[in-house]
Write the structure tokens for this entry.
Amino acid sequence: MSGHDSLYFEKLGETYDSWVSPYDVARRTRLILEELIPRSAVADWQVLEVGCGTGLISSRLVERFPHLTVSDVSEKMTRQVGAALGCQQLPGDCAALPVAPGSFDMVVSSECIEHTPDPYASLEGMARVLRPGGWLVITTPNRLYFPVLRLAEKLRIRKFAGPEHWTWPHRTRRWLLERGFAETCFSGCHLFPWHVPGARAVLPFFDRFGAFLYPLMVNYGFRARKAASA
């Protein structure tokens, strides 16, 4: 990721909390904490959150994993979140994280890979820093809804103007299998955009069936276990 992108996300962080949807963040946080993080996870795990942003999800993760390390392409945001939460800090590009391979038991990232030049190169970078048998936990938008994004941009109702590279759930599943990941589990949230009037009253009901409906949902997520060393 370029220095220009880093500066863009740094500037974005100054106003992000004022326009991001609290509803969306809450539903994605629930998806991560209640469905995707494996039940075998323990408090002393070394956990890395990639794309920490302003720390909205970091603040929940650190409650469960005190050894959390936060990372963002924006060094400023990484330092601010790390200092506020008392976390280790690892600023850098998620496709080339400046840390030794196998450093973490779990890597968590929400709505990050789609804002990188190559989402799968970013996943590759996260997989590199996982220990053998470690877990990758990700949420990201579903490319099925990419036309809706473009419409929102044309109507100028979307405030984010950074890179967008959305992925298909089935392609992501194939990528994981080709790289030897096992125990994959997919789910999702938002069967349709939460901006629709009245949507927030009914969407949580459909979220209960995310494990089946995720191919049709606005956001999908997964957990997958890295292969153990031979």
Remarks:
- The chain has ten helices and seven strands.
- The chain has a mean pLDDT of 90.
- The two ends are 32 Å apart (CA to CA).
